[in-house]
């Protein structure tokens, strides 16, 4: 059991204030979009840091990680030195000898890209294909960063807004009806002619098409029509509002119109949603804790200045209508709620301690990461460590059962 320090990602959509404020720091001069806790080679966490080290190292962030030295200890190297001790028996981890999950705190001030994640087979084929083509991992035209799938579960820490998965064809036509502009009428008619997943796929491909996408003027007409539609008469006031909001940030990007095809999602703090491979989605605003398979594979569909590979995206995206998958937690004890996603890579628990004199057993197996959101606690396993607000510890599989004593709110990432 060792103290762990995360790594920061400063994507443009991030909030300068939300994640620092969570851990007692002042806002930064640039966005902090994500805090990564895990062993992904793109940004492995530091392990064995001083007991008073915060999980969020803003001094290094300000220096652009310039303070890194050859003596740094990173979680991926730590695992490689004794994989069975850290991860457990190979049969217990489908990704052995890699940590199967990546834990993040994510905070969006502006909408993220419209995106989809591949399955394991798709990721392996895509990674090998891009390698064979000589596309470097650091290339902006690289889609596959690793050979893993990336199912993910997000639990809101604040009010959180997203669009996830395709509506039914009938509902898409309802949302488009009444806008009274050529592009909306055109795509509604395309779906009427083929009211199934194939029809939705055709419309999605048309909106994102490289050769024949709608032009800026057509998209602007849809945006203006959504802005002008009376909410009391609209089939989906939220869809209209999302179009207007996206247009503020991305102008006449075709993804703005594509958002009308998708399900709006609102999460309250403590609510969670699961996004499987192939599900198109975009997080719009809010702060949450996110856990996913250890991957950084993202195929973007729009709402981004980054690389968009439409042909590859269309191989991966699933256009069958499905409601967003909300995951209700199971109450494992008076202090622990666990979200069980339908994958073998991870599970996520929220822990709330109120009695600082009571030692509570915490369920969870394999390699685990415990993050203190507020308060403080003693963590008791193979040894005893103290964690305060904004600190984290990594527990090997060999550390065995864990108990904690304290007061506050905690997040636990574990393996099913």
In angstroms, what is the radius of gyration?
A: 22 Å
Enumerate how many helices there are, as a single number. 12
Largest sheet: 10 strands, antiparallel
Helical coverage, percent range: 25-40%
Parts with pLDDT < 50 across at least 5 consecutive residues: none
In terms of DSSP E residues, the strand content is 25-35%
First and last CA, distance: 19 Å
Structural class: alpha+beta
Beta strands, count: 21
- Mean residue pLDDT: 92
Give the CA-based shape. globular
What do you see in this structure?
- By secondary structure, this protein is an alpha+beta fold.
- 25% of the residues lie in helices and 30% in strands.
- It contains twelve helices and 21 strands.
- Strands 1, 4, 14, 15, 16, 17, 18, 19, 20 and 21 form a ten-stranded antiparallel β-sheet that branches. Strands 2, 3, 5, 7, 8, 9, 10, 11 and 13 form a nine-stranded antiparallel β-sheet that branches. The protein has a two-stranded antiparallel sheet with strand order 6-12.
- α9 (216-228) packs across α10.
- The model has no long low-confidence stretch (mean pLDDT 92).
């Amino acid at each position: 059991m060792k103290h762990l320090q995360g790594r920061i990602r400063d994507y443009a959509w991030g909030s300068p204030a939300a994640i620092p404020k969570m851990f007692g720091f002042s806002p930064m001069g640039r966005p902090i979009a994500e805090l990564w806790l895990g062993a992904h080679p793109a940004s492995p966490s530091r392990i064995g840091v001083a007991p008073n080290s915060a999980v969020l190292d803003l001094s290094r962030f300000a220096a652009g990680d310039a303070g890194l030295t050859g003596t740094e200890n990173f979680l991926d190297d730590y695992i490689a030195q004794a994989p069975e001790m850290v991860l457990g028996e190979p049969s217990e981890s489908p990704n052995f000898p890699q940590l199967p999950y990546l834990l993040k705190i994510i905070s969006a001030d502006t909408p993220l890209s419209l995106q989809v994640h591949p399955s394991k087979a798709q990721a392996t084929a895509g990674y090998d294909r891009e390698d064979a083509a000589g596309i470097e991992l650091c290339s902006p035209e690289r889609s596959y960063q690793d050979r893993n799938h990336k199912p993910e579960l997000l639990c809101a820490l604040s009010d959180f807004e997203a669009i996830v998965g395709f509506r039914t064809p009938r509902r898409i036509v309802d949302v488009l009806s009444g806008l009274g502009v050529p592009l909306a009428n055109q795509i509604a008619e395309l779906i009427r002619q083929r009211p199934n997943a194939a029809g939705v796929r055709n419309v999605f491909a048309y909106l994102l098409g490289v050769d024949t996408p709608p032009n800026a003027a057509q998209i602007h007409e849809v945006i203006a029509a959504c802005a002008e539609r009376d909410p009391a008469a609209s089939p989906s006031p939220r869809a209209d509002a999302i179009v207007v909001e996206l247009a503020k940030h991305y102008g006449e990007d075709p993804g703005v119109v594509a958002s009308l095809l998708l399900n709006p999602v609102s999460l309250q703090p403590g609510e969670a949603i699961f996004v499987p491979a192939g599900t198109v989605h975009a997080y719009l605003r809010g702060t949450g804790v996110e856990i996913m398979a250890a991957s950084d594979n993202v195929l973007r569909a729009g709402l981004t200045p980054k690389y968009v590979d439409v042909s590859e995206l269309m191989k991966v995206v699933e256009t069958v209508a499905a409601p967003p998958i909300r995951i209700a937690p199971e109450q494992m004890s008076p202090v622990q709620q666990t979200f069980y996603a339908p994958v073998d890579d991870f599970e996520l628990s929220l822990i709330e301690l109120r009695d600082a004199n009571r030692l509570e057993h915490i369920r969870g197996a394999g390699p685990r990461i415990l993050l203190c959101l507020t308060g403080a606690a003693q963590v008791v396993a193979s040894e005893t460590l103290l964690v305060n607000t904004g600190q984290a510890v990594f527990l090997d599989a060999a550390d065995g059962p864990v108990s904690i004593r304290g007061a506050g709110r905690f997040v636990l990432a574990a393996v099913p």
